[in-house]
Amino acid sequence: MAINGRNYGTSGPNNIHYEEEHNSSSVSSHTLNLGKVFGIMFIWLLVTAGIAFLGGYLFARWLGSASDPNPVAARGIMAILVVSGITLLVLTFVIQLWALRRDKGMLVLSSLYVLCMGVLMSTFTLFIDWQILGVALGLTSAIFGVLALIGFLARNVRPIAMVGFMLLFGSLIVSLGTWLFSLFLPVNVTFLWILDFVIFGAMLLLVIVDMHQINKICKNGEMSRNLTLYCALTLYTDFVYIFIKIVYYLAIAYGKSR
Predict the structure, then answer these.
(1) Distance of CA 2 to the CA centre of its chain
(2) What is the pTM of this model?
(3) CA 207 to CA 197: how far, in whole Å?
(4) pLDDT tens digit string along 173-226?
(5) What's the number of CA atoms in the CB half-sphere (13 Å) around residue 7?
(6) Distance (Å, rounded) from C-alpha 210 to C-alpha 216?
(7) pLDDT of residue 25
(8) DSSP H helical ranges for the chain
(9) I want to staple 167 with a disulfide (CB 3.0 to 4.6 A). Which of 80, 202, 204, 214 is the partner?
(10) CA dihedral of residues 191, 196, 202, 204 (deg, nearest 10)
(11) pLDDT tens-digit readout, 4-14
(12) Can you tell me the mean pLDDT for 248-256?
C-alpha cells in the first residue's frame, strides 16, 4: 500500500519479488544442508561396510580353520574388539562436548568413530550368514526411511519424544532391577524379550525426534562443518543401531528355524 508516494505495505511488487527470492533461497539452503547431512551419513555407512568386510576377511584368515582356530589370533581379535569398543564409548561422550564447543577436530573424531564401528561390525561378517545381513540391511533401510519421513513431516514431536524417553528410562530402570533379581532367582525369558522390544521401540521413536530436530536445524540456514558432521553422525548412529538390532533378531530366528 502506498501512502504519500511511499510504500508501507508488504504486498507491493518489490516486496513480493523479495519474498519469492527469500523463500527460494531458504528452500535451496534447506535442501543443500539435508543433502550434505545424508550424503556424509551414506559415505560413512559405505566406509563402515568396507571396514567390516575387510576386517571379517582378515580375521577369518588369521583365525585359520574353524575346527581348530589359532588361539593367539583369537586373543588378538578379542583385544582389538575390546579396544575398539572402549574407544567408541569414550568418543560418544567426547563428540557430544566437542561438537558444540570446538571449531575444528570434529572430522577426525567422527572418522575415528566410524573406524571403530567398522572394526566392531567385522564380527558380523565373520560369524553371521550373509543372507541374514542382506535381509537386515533391507529391513533397516525401510524402517529408517519411514521413521525419517515421519520426523521430516511431523510438526510437533514432543509427544513422541516424551513417550520415547519415558519408555527408555522406565525400561532401563526395570532392566537394572531385573539384573539384580537374576542374581538370586531365574528370570522369565518372555519377560526379557518384552523388555528388549520395549527398549527397541523407544529408540525407534527417538529416531523420529532426531530426524525432526535435524530437519529444523537444516532449515535455519548455513550450517557449520562441525554441526553438519554432528547431525550426520547422529543419523549414522541411529541407522547402525537399528541394523544391529535387526541382525540380532534375525540371527535368533534363523537359528531356531534350523
Answers:
(1) 54
(2) 0.84
(3) 15
(4) 888 888 777 777 777 788 788 888 998 999 999 999 999 999 998 888 777 888
(5) 7
(6) 10
(7) 53
(8) 13-63, 71-101, 106-127, 130-153, 158-182, 189-219, 225-257
(9) 202
(10) -140
(11) 443 434 445 54
(12) 83
Cell numbers linked to 64: 585359520
- Lookup: cell for 211: 530426524
Q: In this predicted model, what pLDDT tens digit does every residue of 121-159 receive, in sequence order?
A: 999 988 888 899 999 999 999 999 999 999 998 888 888
Mutual angle of helices 130-153 and 189-219, in 10-degree steps: 50
User: Is the four-CA dihedral 224, 235, 87, 78 of positive or negative sign?
Assistant: negative
- The one-letter code for the residue type at 85 is G
Residue 49, classified by CB atoms within 10 Å of its CB into exposed (0-12), middle (13-18) or buried (19+), is: middle
pLDDT at 254: 80
Half-sphere exposure of 6 (CA within 13 A, CB side): 2
Instruction: Report the C-alpha gap between 66 and 194 in whole angstroms.
Output: 35
Cα–Cα distance, 147 to 210 (Å, whole number): 10
- Which cell is 162 given? 516424551
Q: How many residues does the chain have?
A: 258
- Tell me the backbone φ, ψ of residue 2, rounded to 5 degrees: -105, 130
Other C-beta atoms lying within 10 Å of the C-beta of residue 56: 19
Distances (CA, A) of 189 to 3, 42, 83: 78, 37, 31
Where residue 3 falls among pLDDT bands split at 50, 70, 90? very low
Residue 194 one-letter amino acid: I
Residue 6 β-bridge partners: 3
CA distances 227 to 56, 104, 144, 148, 204, Å, are 32, 11, 21, 19, 23
